[in-house]
Every structure is written in structure tokens, then in C-alpha cells.
Amino acid sequence: MSASAPTPAAGPLDLARWRNLPLGLMAVGGLGCLVTLLVNSRQFGFSWLLGFMFYLSLALGALFLVLMHHLFDASWSVAIRRLCEHLAALCFPWLALLFVPIALLAPRIYPWMRETGTTDHFLSAKAPLFTRPMFYVVAVFCFWIWGLFTHRLRRWSLQQDADGAARCTQMMRRYSGGGVVLYPIVLTLAAIMWVKALQHQWFSTMYGVYYFAESVWVTVATVYFIALLLKSAGKLDALLQETQFYMLGSLLLAFTVFYAYIHFAQYFIIWNANLPEETYWYVLRERGSWWYVGMIIIFGHFFLPFLALLRIDVKLKFACMLPLCLWAWLMHYFDMAFNIMPVLHPNNFSFTGMWADLSCLALMGGVLLRAFVRDCGRYPLYPLKDPRLGECLGVYHAPAVASTPASAAPPLGTAGAKPKTAS
Question: Is residue 422 in a domain?
């Protein structure tokens, strides 16, 4: 069996149309953040924490997809691997820098940091972890682990583009093997110390899995959206075929169900046990308009995407998937608000505070989008010499890809028609 394939363009992404969007987001968001900080610094701290955990979930979800790609030696995900590597690399240094306001405002955000005595039994029982020094030690540890694995995986990926050596593939598999062990530990630590610790009396052994399921769900929707934008712009046209979009749609459906299962299981176990130190977390979130936010999450986060994605053909209908991906961002915002904001606004969802949330999301989003687009323009948009590239294209051998340097690759969409096989 022999085959020939067109050369998918690996040229840099045209940044002209995206140059002003990050700057606009940073300008508008920065102004809103400054006003909120001057008027209500505690509201700013909670809104900044919400935005930070929102974007951290995207980076950690992308890291999970990269780890799974190497561990399962997948072929369909070759087309989106570089995009996921760039998203994961936002963990360090960008998200680490965005964590600085949380570190500075932590005593105003976390009530347990203001405890001076040992009368709080829950705090004393968790004292080895819930102390001020340990809060910052955990933060340094988390960002060090994320920075190590995200940048080593991308470094070896770029080295593979240069020489295509088998050693690069082996090293990425080794890092993925170690990463998949440390990944759940570090993610759980971060979710507990930065969100669950807002109400340190609460007990839940499923919170780390809850945040993980939410992270991968919104990341899959985001990668689908980015891939769709690139395809509509004529980039990666030969690589982004029906298989990639169908697989991403299937993953979105799978994690829609998994997230709902984890959330329901946590609620059911707490309701069934009926212990005050556990039930109060949900009792608080059933007050006032928080009840309606919970209903939005149940019907908007699960039932709507679940029913929409059941049909096989919907996963390939971009007119349906594009608004669904944007809807996922909206539901993710409500989910983060449901976890964080009842501590600051215990009776009702605050629409006034929502503007502070959007300002922080805009400022962080502008910074991270600028870094992401810069990386897409600096490096090839796909791994040039991945051993599964031919299989991703639907052929067994693609010599043109292996011999074409990134700098000489033509713009995507001008390399020819879709790949054809010949026997």
C-alpha cells in the first residue's frame, strides 16, 4: 500500500485580525478591575479568584488531553495536540503571575486565615494543611509541577518537529506516565486550597474529581471552538477533518455525563448522610436566587448539551456546535460562581458583582489570549513529524510532511485537496 498526501501548512498564524482583541479585553477589563478594587477590594478578590479558577480549568483540561494523547498513542488527536500544548503551557508563567493578587488578598478572601485561636475544631483538625505558610507552599508546588510537565512536553514536541527522532516520542510518553500520576494529586490540592477552603468546615472527598470533570468538559468545548475557527480561516484544513470534530463532540458528550454523575453523586451522598458539616454547603446554595442558579446548572449544564449531543450528526453540524461551545463557557461561569460567590453573597446571586466578575474574566482572558495567539504564531500549528501524522491524515505514509520545515510550509488551504489514498 502506498499513498501520497498534501502538505498541511505549518506556517505561522496570521495575527492581524486577532491583534486588537486581546488589547481591547485587557483595556476594558483592567478599567473594571481598577474600579472594583478601589470601591470594594473584597469583591475584587472573589471575582479575581473566580476568573483565575475559570481559566486554570482550561489549562489543566488541556494538559489532561495532552497526557492522554501520549499514553494512548492516539492518532486522531494529532491535529489538536499542539493547540492543547499551547493552552496547557499557560499554567506557567502566565497563570502563576495571575495568581499573585490572590496570594496578596488571601487573608481577605479566606476566613480561616483570620482565625487566631484554636477554638475552631475543623481548622485545628486540618492544621497541617490549612495554615498560612502551607497555603503559599502548596501554590508554589502546584505551579512548579504544572510548569515542569507542560513545558517539558512542549519542548520535546518542538524538538520532534526538528528531527523527528524516536527519542522525542519516548520522552513525551515518559513525562506523560509521570504526569498522569501527579496530575490528580496537584489538581485536587489546588481545588481544595483555593476554592473548597473558602468554607473550610465542609467535607467532600469528591471535590477534586468534580473540578477535574468540569475542567475537561469546558476545555473540550474550547478546543472544538478553536479548531472550528482555524478550519474556517483555512488553517489545518487537511488535518481537521470530520474525525477530529466527531471525536471532540463525543468527548464533550462523555464529560457532560461524567460531570453530571460526579455532581449528583456528591449531592446524593451528602443528602443521604445528613451531617451538618456537609449539608450546610448545599443549604447555603439553596437560599434566594442561588436556587435558580442551581437549576440553571442542572438544566443548562447537563440536560441541554446532553440532549443536543445525543444525535450523531449534530457533532458535525457547526451551526449547532458553535453556539453550544459558547454556551459551555456561560455554564462554566455559573458553575464557578455557584462554588465561590455564596461565601460573599450568601442570600442572592449578585448582578452588581457580576460586572466585577466579567471585568476580571476580560482582563485575564486578554492576557492569556495574547500569549496563546503569540505561541500559535511562533510555532507550527501541528506536530510536523508526529509518527501518527500519516494515520491522522488517513494515509500510511506522508513523506512531504516529514521533509518540509515549518518555515517553508505554504499557507494552509493552498497545499491541495483532501488527502487521497492509492493502492
Answer: no
User: For the chain, what percent of residues have pLDDT higher than 70?
Assistant: 88
| pLDDT interval class at 116 (50, 70, 90) | low
pLDDT over 60 at 401, yes or no: no
CA pair distance 91, 401, nearest whole angstrom: 30
Mean pLDDT, the chain, whole residue set: 88
Distance CA 32, CA 40 (A): 12
pLDDT of the residue at 122: 76
On whether the CB atoms of residues 58 and 66 are closer than 8 A, the answer is: no
- Which residues, 6+ apart, have CB-to-CB distance to 106 below 8 Å? 113, 132, 135
CA 176 from chain centre, in angstroms, equals 18
Number of domains in the chain: 1
Q: Is the pLDDT of residue 51 over 80?
A: yes
- Is 414 inside any structural domain? no
Domain span at residue 8?
2-112+126-404
Q: Which helix (H) or strand (E) segment is 421 a member of?
A: strand 420-422
Contact between 332 and 55 under an 8 Å Cβ cutoff? The reply is no
Q: Is residue 419 part of a domain?
A: no
**420 within domain boundaries:** no
Q: Is the model's pTM score more than 0.85? A: yes
**Under 8 Å CB-to-CB from 154, ≥6 apart: which residues?**
85, 86, 88, 89
Grouping H, G, I as helix, E, B as strand and the rest as coil, residue 263 is helix
Sign of CA dihedral 410, 412, 416, 420: positive
pLDDT score of 16 more than 70: no
3-class SS of residue 36: helix
- CB atoms near residue 284 (< 10 Å): 15
DSSP state of 118: S
Contacts of 373 (CB under 8 A, 6+ apart): 13, 15, 18, 22
